[in-house]
Structures are given as structure tokens and as C-alpha cells.
Amino acid sequence: MLREIQKVLRLIMLLEKQRRHPGINNARGLLVLLWTETGASMNCTVAAAGPWCTGIEMKALQPALTDLKESMCACTWSCPQPDPEELCAFTDTYGSLRLLLSFQMKEARLFIPEWCARIESFLHSFSSANARIKIHFKFKFSQQSVQRDFRVNSVRKVACANRPSLILDVACKTQPPECVKKGCWCHGGHPVLGGRLPLSIPPEAMDHGLFGELSVQPVTVLSPCVLQYPNLATQLTDIQISFADFIISLFVLVCGPSNVPFTGPSTLLQNLPAHLDCQELGLHGLHCSSSKDPVHRGGTVYTVEQENCEDPEQESGLPTMQQSLLLYLFLQHSDPFTYQLSDMMATEVLIEHHLEDILNNNRQAVTAALQTELRNSLKPQNHRKKDQEKLRSAAEVILSSAVSIVSCSSNMDFRNACLNSMKVHDTHELSASLCESLRRVTSWKFTPRSGCYSAQMEEHPDSDKPTRTEI
């Protein structure tokens, strides 16, 4: 069922690219509804509504629909239509239905809860690369019912040469620490456009009819954003690659020229860590793993190995902000002889089918390009680590000097005033208290940035004002 939904979404997205409705704020609704009536067959309806579908005529789509039906041999298109009440909330929000496709799979017994999670994960990936579209997913099977809306809160438009701008979901669900004040936390990532890489098409793919020009456009997103806290300790935990025309998380998720994610894993990408120079990237090590997060388990995930050393920041009880790097690899294809909708769909199927051959045919170029993009993305983080080492050394000197002044002072009134100010009994406790206060002040130094998203966070009652007074 997942591949069938993928094919229908590919038709809709290629149709939308042909029609080119550019407005970001236009209402773009997509409904995916799965349900059973007798328990023997699984029905699926994919519906689209909103200005982006205005003017679609089903008669004009017949050639493409015929090819779509032939490719979905495991399905029948003579199936029950969904209950109109199921569509009411959708049409009330987006207006009249512009496109409605329903099909049926006979083996409903194959649809275990895990399949529902896989479809949900696929739709989440689709939503991240197509942030303008609001997706509504409903699943009803036996006594089980699931409803999920994929709504985007933080959107970034990435302008690209020779293709429509990318609209990405950059929202980060990582919650800020309790000490962060209102509006002082960025809840969105900042996409960085990389260099476009041309790809040569292997002879095997040409023999099957894949011609034209292929290329990859990398886009990286590091989240959560901590640019407003230059002294905060960070730790990269994973990287994700995703093909949307490609997506990477250092996770791998692949999408075609329609921006619909591919569903199969790539052997080359799974073996990528063995060909990367981790030392140049500032990483201790990297290995491919399966994601436990249902949102990303459809892609390839790289886990960053952490050094076995005692971190002074962690010893002090201060949080180390864990970050993820998402690398989108957007595949682009152009062929002057491929302009019919059915031809574009067939071409994307060929690209997905021969993806491994294409990557292997460009192995050295792809590996070098990924090394460059990862190095450029992680360069600021590596600079941050060096700056924090300098700050840590300076803090040790400040702490040692402050404790020495108090310890060596013969003025009892001065010593008692210092101890009372820090609420400690002796110089040993003073050293520990000063160390914690100094690290809190320096780690949470806030530097506003106009490009960051501002979120209204509840101010924690224990603000840093007392600590600043103590210092």
C-alpha cells in the first residue's frame, strides 16, 4: 500500500509542478484515507483540494491515470467511495475537492499496525520536503482508528537555480531548557544551500530509456539552532540523508524530481561512513544504524560516536544540547523530450529503480560532495568547540584568582561578605558555587539574531539574575 500511495502522490506533485502555483500561503490540502468495510479488503482514497488544484480536469489526466492503474497491478480501481462525512471536515477547510482517487487492495490481513506507522513516517518525510501542503491522514481498520495531521509551524523558502524554490519544514521539536526566557529560543533550523552536483547516467539505465541530465542539489539543516547561545556546549548525535529529489539525516531518505520520497534503502549510502574522513569533519566516528524514531525509520541514519571522556560541562550539571544534521539531496532531471505527465512519471520510476546504479556510477563524485557539504555544515560547530575551550581555560583562571583573593584576605568582614553572598560556609564550598555560577552565566549568554525564530516560552521562576548579581 505504501508504494501505491507513493505513486498517487507522485502524480499529484508532477501535476502541480506542471501547473506552477507559486504562492506559499495558498491553502494546499491533501487527504490520505485508509479504511475497510468487510475486513477482507483495504480501501485507500487520496484527495486534494485548494487553489493549487484549480483547473484540474480528470479527462485530461486519463492517459496518466491509465499508466498509473497499469503500474498498480495489485490494486483494483472499482472500489467503494469513502463516506462523505469523512470528507466533510477536509472540504470545509480547503473547499471543493479538485482531485479524488480511490483504489482497493484485497489482502487487508497484511496491514498490521507497523504498516500504518510506515505510511505515517513516509507522509512525515513527504511533508518535510513539501511544507506548503497540509496533510491529513486517517486510518480505520477493524477496531483501530488513527488520525494524524501534518501541519508545519516553521517554513523556510530556499531559492535554487534552474528549478522552483524549495519550501522546507525546518521546525524543531526539541524543547528549550527551563532557564530560557520568553522569546529567546529558536524553534527553526536554517537551511544552507550547497553546490549542485551533475550526475552521469549509467549505460544500464540508458538501456531502459533514462536519458537527459541528472543532478543533485544538497541542502543542510542543523537543529536545534543554538546560534543565539554561542557559549552553549553542543553534541552532534546523528546525521540523516534524504533524497527528495534526495533527503540526508547524519538520517538517509531519498526523493525523486517530484519531491516525493523514495522508499527503498541505498547500499552506497549505508556504507558511506567507511568512505568519509571523520577526522576532517571533527567527528570521533560515524556508523550506520536503524532509527528507533518512527518518524525517521524509513531512512538511513548515521549515529555519531562520542568520545569516552569526562565532560566538565556535564559534571557541572549543565545540559549539552544534542543536535541532528539533516542533509537533503534533491535530485533534478531535465529532458526536452520528456514533457508529458505520463512520461515524467515513467522517468521518475526509472530513476528510483536505477538509483543504486546511478550512485555507484558517480561514487567518487557523490562521496566527495557529501564530504564537502558535511565539512561546511559542521565547520561552525567545530569553531564553537575551540572557542569554548578558550572560554573554559579563561574561566579556570578567573575562578582560581577569585578563590585565592578570598582565601588570602585578612579582612574577615570581606571574607564573610563573599561567603554570605554565595550562601556557602567555607572557601571549599565557595569554589564549587563560583564554578557553577560562572558556567551558568557564560553558557547561557544570549546574543539575539534577527534571522532566528522567536518562540514565546514560559519564563522559569529561577532566572539567571541572582547568578549575575553573585558574579
Write the layout of secondary structure elements.
Layout lengths: L1 H18 L9 E7 L6 E8 L12 H10 L3 E2 L7 H11 L2 E9 L7 H17 L4 E8 L2 E7 L4 E4 L7 E4 L22 E2 L3 E3 L3 H5 L5 E11 L10 E10 L3 E3 L2 E4 L5 E2 L4 H4 L7 H4 L3 E5 L10 E6 L6 H4 L5 E14 L6 H13 L1 H7 L1 H46 L3 H10 L5 H17 L21 H6 L1
Parallel strand pairs: 1-5, 12-18
Antiparallel strand pairs: 1-2, 2-4, 3-4, 5-6, 7-8, 9-11, 10-11, 11-18, 12-13, 12-17, 13-18, 14-15, 16-17
Helix pairs in contact: 2-9, 11-13
Written account of the structure:
The protein is of the alpha+beta class and 471 residues long. It has three domains: 2-150, no CATH class; 155-384, no CATH class; 387-470, no CATH class. It contains 14 helices and 18 strands. It has helices at residues 2-19, 62-71, 84-94, 113-129, 203-207, 267-270, 278-281, 312-315, 341-353, 355-361, 363-408, 412-421, 427-443, 465-470, and strands at residues 29-35, 42-49, 75-76, 97-105, 134-141, 144-150, 155-158, 166-169, 192-193, 197-199, 213-223, 234-243, 247-249, 252-255, 261-262, 285-289, 300-305, 321-334. Strands 9, 10, 11, 12, 13, 16, 17 and 18 form an eight-stranded mixed β-sheet that branches. A six-stranded mixed β-sheet has the order 3-4-2-1-5-6, sandwiched between helices. A hairpin with a 7-residue loop joins strand 7 (155-158) and strand 8 (166-169). The protein is elongated, with a radius of gyration of 27 Å. It starts with a helix and ends with a helix. One of its GO terms (biological process) is meiotic DNA double-strand break formation. InterPro entries: TopoVIB-like (IPR028040).
